[in-house]
Amino acid sequence: MTKPNHPTVLITGFEPFGGEAINPSWQAVQKLEGLIIEGHLIVTRELPCEFDTSLESLYNNIALHEPNLVLCVGQAGGRSDITIERIAININDARIKDNAGHQPIDTPVVKGGPAAVFAKLPIKQMLWDLHEAQIPASISNTAGTYVCNHVMYGLCHYIETHKANLKGGFIHIPYLPEQAVHHSGAPSMAESTVIAALKSMIASALSHDQDLAIAAGTTH
């Protein structure tokens, strides 16, 4: 395989799960394939919504593409804005079965790993730039306990133990309007807004090594 002329960014989305016909993460992420942002080639891949095999696929793609930045994106039905995840915890506690029929309960993502790991991203800078672009966004302090958290923990733990210079983390996005119409009262976000947000966050993450010190916490 010929190496690309540009350094790469790996962006992943998920296949549909939980009875949905689409997953907004992959719907949006795949539209970035081949773009050049901040001198980096964007490579997009769809991950299975399955424990363990999702991480195997992610690790294989990191080894293949040798990215400088990895952003994993997932669906958070019920959330109203772009949420940049701050932390992942070392637990699998699946409320529903994954797409392979597995439902791990109270098992570690990485046996012997720390209780939690933080995103390897300038999350406050990314948030600031989204707000400057008039895109609703916030910092999230829970990625859940399903496959999204599983992937974020696996990614950030991998960076800590294998590739200290790699930037990486997880982004949750709302339903698309065509999904929200089937969930009474659920918020949604247009795909064009999600794509604009992803481009902004990629540029922010690549352009800044130091994060901003701005308040973006919560009281509960």
Automatic annotation (TrEMBL):
Enzyme Commission number(s) of this protein: 3.4.19.3
**What UniProt keywords apply to this chain's record, in alphabetical order?**
Cytoplasm, Hydrolase, Protease, Thiol protease
The answer, when asked if Acetylation is one of the entry's keywords, is: no
Q: Where in the cell is the protein located? A: Cytoplasm
Q: Look up the domain of life of the source.
A: Bacteria
Q: What is this enzyme's class at the first EC digit?
A: hydrolase
* UniProt GO MF annotations: pyroglutamyl-peptidase activity
Q: Which reaction does it catalyse?
A: Release of an N-terminal pyroglutamyl group from a polypeptide, the second amino acid generally not being Pro
Record carries keyword Hydrolase: yes
Q: What is its main location?
A: cytoplasm
| PROSITE patterns, alphabetized | PYRASE_CYS, PYRASE_GLU
Active site positions: E85, C148, H172
Q: Which Gene3D superfamilies match?
A: Peptidase C15, pyroglutamyl peptidase I-like (3.40.630.20)
Q: Describe its partners and assembly state.
A: Homotetramer.
| Family indicated by similarity | Belongs to the peptidase C15 family.
Q: According to its UniProt entry, what is the function of this protein?
A: Removes 5-oxoproline from various penultimate amino acid residues except L-proline.
Q: Provide the protein name.
A: Pyrrolidone-carboxylate peptidase
What is the organism field in this record? Pseudoalteromonas obscura
Tell me the gene name.
Answer: pcp
